[in-house]
Amino acid sequence: MADQAQPTLPAGPGNTPGPGETSRNTRRRFAPKGQPLITGINRIGLWSLYIKEVRRFLKVQTQTIWAPAVTTLLFLVIFSVAMGRGGREVLGVNFATFVAPGLIMMGMMQNAFANSSFSLLAGKIQGTIIDLLMPPLSEAELMIGIIAAAITRAVMVGGALALAMALWPGVDMQAAHPWAIVWFGLMGSTFLSLIGLLTSLWGEKFDHNAAVTNFVVTPLALLSGTFYVISNLSPLFQTISRANPFFYMISGFRFGFLGQSDIGNTNEAVIGAAVGVGMLNLVLGVLTYRILKSGWKLKS
């Protein structure tokens, strides 16, 4: 039986790999320890993180979407009653129409901050931060997932507010420049999402989060021209207002509805502010990524 096939001997001391054994061993070889097996973007992991964050705030949507919308709507009621009597007009429209876009933008930004500032901070306090750090997600993917969920919540709150205000008597919600509504709405939500993520990296307890909300976010939002035009202020306070990034986001968003704002009344006048807020978000995004990658207060 000289022509009968001989069995292939396993590789080992004194034996050489049989035919085909070398290629099989090559195919079964795992990557070296520490070398990632996922290359490029981990789309499944990123999508899973985004859905997890969205489901987290949708589980308590009465608190995270509808309650902020109702609270912001109360500002419209109070200020319309207090300052809108006698047919008062601002920028050529009645007071309720003037203040409505600013309230929508303010509600969107505050809720974007609230959402992104909770994720990592809650994990650090509850000891579940490992659930976000262990999955095969890069720092950029972790940041994108959290910020995208915060923007989603902001858009939902803004949509609920816009619908309520469109049905409110005396409020005209026509869109004069849709591009400005979309751009400044997204840039404002992104800006506050990044600020919230930085807060959750820095904070060690919920008091730290509340401090940033009460002493930074809320004052800057209320003093940004939401309820007034800055031309009514003294030159000093006009300069201070123009140093507030919230001013450009709220005024640009208002320009999208009214076609008029403190920035200007033409597309050309507002484009500079649009580019400026975009660059501000880019710089803040790079800073947030570098801090997140360093593991500051997360891995150290």
UniProtKB/TrEMBL annotation:
InterPro entries: ABC-2_transport_permease, ABC2_TM, ABC2_TM_bact-type, ABC_2_transport. This is Transport permease protein. It comes from Croceibacterium soli. It is found in: Cell inner membrane; Membrane. Pfam families: ABC2_membrane. Residues 1-32 are annotated as: Disordered. Residues 59-292 form the ABC transmembrane type-2 domain. Keywords: Cell membrane, Membrane, Transmembrane, Transmembrane helix, Transport. GO terms for cellular component: ATP-binding cassette (ABC) transporter complex. GO terms for molecular function: ABC-type transporter activity. PANTHER family: INNER MEMBRANE TRANSPORT PERMEASE YADH-RELATED, TRANSPORT PERMEASE PROTEIN. The chain crosses the membrane at residues 65-83, 90-109, 142-168, 180-203, 215-234, 246-263, 269-292. It is a multi-pass membrane protein.
